[in-house]
Write a structure and sequence with these properties.
The chain has 278 residues and is an alpha/beta fold. It is globular. β2, α3 and β3 form a beta-alpha-beta unit. The protein has helices spanning 22-46, 62-70, 88-91, 122-125, 131-150, 164-176, 186-192, 195-209, 224-238; strands at residues 49-56, 78-81, 108-113, 153-161, 216-220. A five-stranded parallel β-sheet has the order 2-3-1-4-5, sandwiched between helices. The chain contains nine helices and five strands.
């Protein structure tokens, strides 16, 4: 017998909060990870089709949120789609055609790390499409999304909002940190200088595509840890789910060795170094 999992009321922030300590963040995230696993089991059990779209400015924190969502669930159920720049063949297709094959089938959660909304954002601002193409997309997208929902897809759209000051800090950190330099592309630098062009593009996108059937949810992401926790909690409330029925798991007994002996084989073990503890 499945049963609903009840969540305690979420605290609502009314003013700026102090930074969340890593220990507290990880404790809260561990609870949410358990909830995401329960959601995964329900999605598979009921054959749900879930599509989550992540958009936002460069360095808004999309990758970190997606990693937080997916690090404890199965990649066979939670599938991340981050398409590269379109090929010449794809450029000749119907614009949304390259995204359709990646939409979820029964028992899947598909997460788009940037999506068809590239046309309303980066393509528009950077001149990769004409203004006429943008307007056609904005007029077409609500109808396409309605068709997706009518086909049984649960569509959830998130926009991560980062401030100018925090974006500058994060991009500078990419320049200074050898672990992050791969995240900084020439396109990021060009986009950085066009803050208000992106603001206008975002506003036009919201005006045209924030519909009753597929609304945009905005996440303040200057505080990465709080943003991740807030978003995951919100996501869990947007996908109706219960505890999926499952049998109690018990490990079977191992087979007898029947005389098996470890071979005298020169296994090539990797060096085991002495690492400092703590």
């Amino acid at each position: 017998m499945s049963k609903k999992r009840k969540h305690p009321p979420a605290p609502v922030a009314t003013e700026a909060q102090p930074p969340l300590k890593r220990r507290d963040y990880e404790r809260q995230l561990a609870v949410l990870h358990g909830d995401l696993v329960r959601l995964q089991q329900w999605v598979v059990h009921k054959g749900l089709k879930v599509c989550i779209v992540f958009e936002g400015r460069d360095s808004a924190g999309k990758g970190g949120v997606i990693k937080a969502i997916t690090e404890r669930v199965s990649p066979r159920v939670f599938r991340v789609v981050a398409l590269p720049a379109p090929t010449d063949r794809e450029k000749s297709q119907l614009y949304l055609q390259r995204y359709v094959p990646h939409l979820p089938s029964a028992g899947e959660v598909v997460i788009f790390d940037r999506s068809w909304y590239n046309r309303a954002g980066v393509e528009r601002v950077m001149g990769f499409c004409t203004e006429d193409q943008t307007q056609k997309f904005l007029s077409m997208a609500p109808g396409v999304e309605k068709a997706m929902i009518e086909s049984g897809i649960i569509l959830i759209k998130y926009w991560l909002e980062v401030s100018q000051e925090e974006q500058t800090r994060r991009l500078q950190a990419r320049i200074d940190d050898p672990r992050k330099i791969w995240k900084l592309s020439p396109m990021d630098l060009k986009s950085y200088s066009r803050w208000y062009d992106y603001s206008r593009a975002r506003d036009a996108m919201f005006a045209a595509t924030d519909t009753p059937w597929a609304p945009w949810f905005v996440v303040r992401s200057d505080d990465k840890r709080r943003a991740r926790l807030n978003l995951i909690r919100h996501l869990l409330t947007k996908i109706p789910h219960e505890e999926a029925p499952r049998e109690k798991v018990k490990l079977p007994e191992r087979q007898k060795d029947h005389g098996y002996q470890e071979p005298d084989f020169p296994f090539k073990y990797i060096p085991e170094l002495v690492w400092p503890a703590g």
